[in-house]
């Protein structure tokens, strides 16, 4: 399924600022416009300066990232994923993810092509200046061009996430998501995974951040086998609406599935909310 052209155009139009007035009142008008936008924006946008990093943020963006995973048997997997987030009334975010994957086995043989496309809707259910809660619903489609590059199933995704701003510079959050297959290749194993994430984001000056995530994956189709993964991310919004980030992780607990992962990406935010706040206790 392609990305609706109308949604992309609407997001780009929303991202284009109107002409600014010239003259002695221009600075005052700009400050008034910034204050009005901050007052209108949901609290999850302003809690940490709108850096576009927290999973509970509803900030429209385009993102491109490349990831590499080393597997225990000597194989490896890499993927370049394009993602676009389009928001509606600043309360609902529609997310499209299109991965292009490559799998290399221990003998050096490679398979590459399109992976499984993911579509999600994220909606705000409660928010105030200190916390936000969202619900998540979506699907991962069986679109892989080669069987090895996908799960061979149509998978429903549903869950919830919440973040609480303990300090101006510190945002803990949590995510719970169930993944369950509903159709697809009968020869492939069914999917019934519960994914849990506990994360912490520490914001620095100039829209920089450091993030620590601990992920638990519980496979109910395999006697509730549980695996624990740990990852660290660092990033910064560099020029205007453009930000860069790097991420690395490994598996800590459970039957070995992963040696390590590395990821790097760039994102463009359609909407800026506030200027970067200096860290304060």
Succession of helices and strands: HHHEEEEEEEEEEEEE
SS field, number of helical segments: 3
Q: What is the strand tally?
A: 13
Helix content: 10-25%
Low-pLDDT stretches: 1-24, 29-49, 274-281
Mean pLDDT: 82
Largest sheet: 12 strands, antiparallel, barrel
CATH H-tier superfamily: monomeric porin ompg
Rounded to an integer, what's the Rg over CA atoms? 20 Å
Based on the coordinates given, report the CATH architecture.
Beta Barrel
Label the structural class.
Answer: mainly beta
Tell the overall outline.
Answer: globular
Report what the structure shows.
The protein has 281 residues and is mainly β. It has a single domain, classed as monomeric porin ompg (Porin), CATH 2.40.160. It is built from 3 helices and 13 strands. It has helices spanning 5-15, 26-40, 43-46, and strands at 61-70, 76-88, 92-104, 110-114, 118-127, 131-140, 153-164, 170-184, 192-204, 208-219, 225-239, 242-253, 260-269. Strands 1-2-3-5-6-7-8-9-10-11-12-13 form a 12-stranded antiparallel barrel. 23% of the residues are buried. Residues 1-24, 29-49 and 274-281 have low confidence and may be disordered.
Fold topology:
Elements: H1 5-15, H2 26-40, H3 43-46, E1 61-70, E2 76-88, E3 92-104, E4 110-114, E5 118-127, E6 131-140, E7 153-164, E8 170-184, E9 192-204, E10 208-219, E11 225-239, E12 242-253, E13 260-269
Antiparallel strand pairs: 1-2, 1-13, 2-3, 3-4, 3-5, 5-6, 6-7, 7-8, 8-9, 9-10, 10-11, 11-12, 12-13
């Amino acid at each position: 399924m392609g990305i609706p052209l109308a949604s992309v155009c609407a997001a780009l139009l929303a991202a284009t600022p109107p002409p600014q007035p010239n003259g002695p009142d221009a600075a005052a008008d700009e400050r008034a416009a910034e204050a009005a936008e901050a007052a209108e924006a949901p609290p999850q946008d302003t809690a940490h300066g709108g850096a576009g990093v927290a999973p509970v943020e509803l900030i429209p963006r385009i993102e491109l990232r490349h990831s590499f995973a080393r597997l225990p048997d000597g194989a490896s997997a890499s993927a370049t994923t394009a993602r676009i987030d389009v928001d509606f009334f600043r309360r609902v975010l529609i997310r499209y993810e299109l991965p292009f994957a490559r799998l290399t086995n221990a003998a050096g043989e490679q398979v590459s092509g399109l992976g499984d496309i993911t579509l999600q809707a994220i909606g705000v259910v409660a928010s105030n200046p200190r916390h936000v809660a969202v619900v998540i619903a979506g699907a991962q489609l069986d679109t892989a061009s080669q069987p090895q590059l996908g799960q061979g199933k149509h998978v429903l995704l549903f869950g919830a996430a919440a973040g609480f701003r303990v300090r101006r510079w510190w945002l803990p959050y949590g995510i719970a998501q169930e993944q369950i297959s509903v159709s697809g290749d009968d020869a492939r194993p069914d999917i019934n995974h519960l994914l849990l994430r506990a994360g912490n984001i520490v914001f620095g000056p100039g829209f920089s951040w450091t993030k620590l995530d601990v992920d638990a994956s519980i496979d109910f189709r395999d006697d509730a086998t549980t695996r624990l993964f740990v990852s660290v991310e660092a990033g910064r919004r560099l020029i205007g609406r453009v930000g860069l980030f790097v991420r690395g992780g490994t598996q800590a607990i459970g039957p070995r599935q992963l040696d390590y992962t590395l990821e790097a990406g760039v994102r463009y935010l359609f909407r800026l909310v506030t200027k970067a706040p200096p860290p304060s206790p």
